[in-house]
Amino acid sequence: MNEQTAVKAPPSHICDPVSLEIIRGAIAAAQSEMEALIERTAISAFIREKKDFYTALFDGHGTMAVGSMVPIFGDMTRPVLEKFPAETMQPGDVYWYNDCYGSYGAISHSNDQVLLAPVFRDGRICAFVMSWAHFADIGGLRPGSISPDATDIFQEGVMIPVTKMIEAGEVNQAVLDIFHRNSRFPDQSIGDMRALMASVDLGTKRVGEILDRFGPDMMADALAQLLDRTRRLVRTKLAETFDYGTHKFTDAIDSDGHGNGPFRMRFALTREKGTDGDDHFIFDARESDDQAPGPINYLMNKGVPGMALGLFYLGGDPSQVCNAGGPNALDEVLFREGSFLQPKYPAPLGLRGLTAMRMISAMCGLLNTGGGEAPAANSAYVVNIMRGEFRNKAGELEPYLLADGIGVGYGARATADGIDAVYFVAQENYPVEFLEAGYPVTMRGYGVVPDSGGAGKHRGGCGIVREYEILAETTMCAIRIDSVQNPPWGIDGGRSGRHGVAIVNPGTPDEVVLNPLSDGNMLKKGDILRIETGGGGGHGHPYDRPAERVLEDVLDGFVTEAAALELYGVVIKNDELDVTATKSHRADRPKVGRFYRQEYVDALV
């Protein structure tokens, strides 16, 4: 059984309502403790500081029972159970993979390493625990293993098919040695793998304690009830959002870094009556564009659309857990092989984060088209990868790798402004002190980009500006910025968020604007690299934003006086609101439309 299988609780429950809530809290606590261990013991900055990791617990059939709020991953246990059937497993086993194509997109780029372990009681598998994390370098074309220059997945590092890393407690050190040998920074790789192994070990112990307290049968029933609870909630919300018929939405990625694009993802959700008399919900992405030569392809697992919908409908409800109930709520998920959402092996996948972020916005657009109140579009987080050599305290040249993921603005909501300066879910921006202490850079500036959030009754979130002074002797820079030609859309009168930009030596005769999706940009000691990230789309007519709120935005540096007048119709002089002039200016109310991307349109299809 996998995440696409609808799991229904038995009609007569073993687990009573009180025990159910205790188990719900216990499994969520176990999952959180596993993540805390990774954060505290990992070596590389991308895991320890950026928090690019994830843990989950599964029932005895391999269906996800609790996971993190990350709507881009799929059925994690299926690849393992296909190669190593449950009846062949034994206590102390740990399985490992990072093979994107071999896992049907459960892992969607090769840097992410997955460890999975069964939990036994009374001679049977009662659960599985999983940890994964993004490893800084696993070989490939360039340090960091992710490059816009990649043209196939072999250039993105070593691939690990499903492998038994630990058999009955005995570690297969040889396979680990091979893996670490392929990293340019093996000490980081070794430390991060130990953190993952420790997290899985902790998870098996914590789940074992829950099993010892409640017994395998009660826990199995509790997990089935939780899955059914989420599934029923999502299906009820889908019926409230979507009328019968087909609802469509289209979004786009600018480029693949090789001069191709844009690449459009075309989503459709159909609600129809099945022959059984029940509603059937079908998600269809088959009309999306063909796969790209460059690495923006996203091998989208069939569990992803339902997971994204499920997380939207759960909305942070503390009585719910993130589980496979969302994927199970959809009756059918359709992709077209050879599209950039279902590319053929060995298409490169390293920059799939751009496409995954645009996918989340497209799902919001689909919800809005159906009648839901989802946020406007977000920008995709920006990644700046710098690698080269610097002189250490001994005067010797030493290699360095800085992968700095930078936050952006998220789309405004129907009831609130978008979030400013956020990376992705639980991940964080590197602090200035950490960057300067650990890397050959000085941060000359770090703040919010004014006017980057889309104007609206509720303003889109603003992006970030970072300005680095290069202290290394040599640096090659890769930049990942999207949504330049296709900025994040606003809704119900809200305007688009502004796009990002990367500039070397801004304001000088040597100023160079970098290609927003490029690698091989050579920087020298003393150069200044300025990166501005994009903002989220606005929600609602800008003239409906209270003038006092616009004044606050101007005083706080989120909106300039010029934009306050041009976009919001608010007149501010010398940091004070001119009420009479504002009332006069707002009397001439511009006409707006349903969506805004460069212009107002009724639909994005």
Describe this entry's structure for a reader.
The protein contains 13 helices and 25 strands. Helix 1 runs antiparallel to helix 5 and helix 1 (17-41) packs across helix 6 (216-241). The relative contact order is 0.11. The two termini are 36 Å apart. The protein is globular. Among the domains are: 17-230, no CATH class; 375-541 and 589-604, no CATH class. Strand 6 and strand 7 form a beta hairpin. With 605 residues, the protein is an alpha+beta fold. Helix content is 28%, strand content 24%. The strands form 6 sheets. Strands 2-1-5-4-3-6-7 form a 7-stranded antiparallel sheet. The protein has a 5-stranded antiparallel sheet with strand order 14-15-21-18-19, with helices on one face. It has helices at residues 17-41, 45-48, 78-83, 173-181, 186-214, 216-241, 304-314, 325-329, 352-370, 432-438, 547-556, 561-568, 579-586, and strands at 53-59, 64-67, 94-97, 112-121, 124-134, 163-167, 170-171, 245-253, 263-273, 279-284, 332-334, 382-391, 397-406, 441-448, 464-470, 474-480, 490-491, 501-504, 512-513, 517-524, 528-532, 572-573, 576-577, 595-597, 599-601. One of its GO terms (biological process) is glutathione metabolic process. It holds the Pfam family Hydantoinase_B. It comes from Sulfitobacter noctilucicola. GO terms for molecular function: 5-oxoprolinase (ATP-hydrolyzing) activity; N-methylhydantoinase (ATP-hydrolyzing) activity. Residues 16-542 form the Hydantoinase B/oxoprolinase domain.
